[in-house]
User: Fold this.
Amino acid sequence: MMTRIYDISQTLGPSLPVWPGDTSFQIQTTWEMNDNCPVQVSKLTLSTHSGTHADAPSHYHDQGVSMEQVALTPYLGECLVLHARPSNGLVSFDDLSLTRGHPDALPQRVLIKTFAEFPHKNWPDFRGIDPKLIDTLANRKVRLIGTDTPSLDPETSKTMGAHKAVQKAGMAILEGLVLEEVPEGRYELIALPLKILGADASPVRAILRSLTS
Assistant:
């Protein structure tokens, strides 16, 4: 059986939507290939939360470790993709198919799709994740939660309840995943963050590989 690869990363470019007030993505040529220069080299300007990214604990906890210290194991291995049913408000346990065909034993990584069509060009209205759902996943030994939205918490949140639930459980976070073409089911996740000293987050190149029996 052929292994299928899903690229679930956003494309980093000038049209990338960013959190209101955050740093827009820019790429500038610093060295240009010509008769006197054999290579092209560019400079990047971007937020640590650009596009598809991993949050470090230092992003949401004043004693949290930064990106170069996070364990890599949560970002690599079997995962379950679940589609949230359309609804208003936070994504809850009842919005997922966990109770419809999935056993209590979950893989250590769960990715949640909320958008029917991913907003590649525009900043979206989006749903946060219910902290109680994170508690439920943590109780089932889930070590990483991922979402297709820019944040686990609503844009206007000041309490960061979902992030705090993740911090309490010692889970890892992926945000901004592109899941619009990925059917529900189990896959291998590969989404390693960059080893950036002192960073509160890192862009990732996230992919899913189909599992073969």
Notes: The mean pLDDT is 94. The helical segments are 131-139, 161-169. The domain at 5-9+48-210 is CATH 3.50.30.50 (Glucose Oxidase; domain 1).
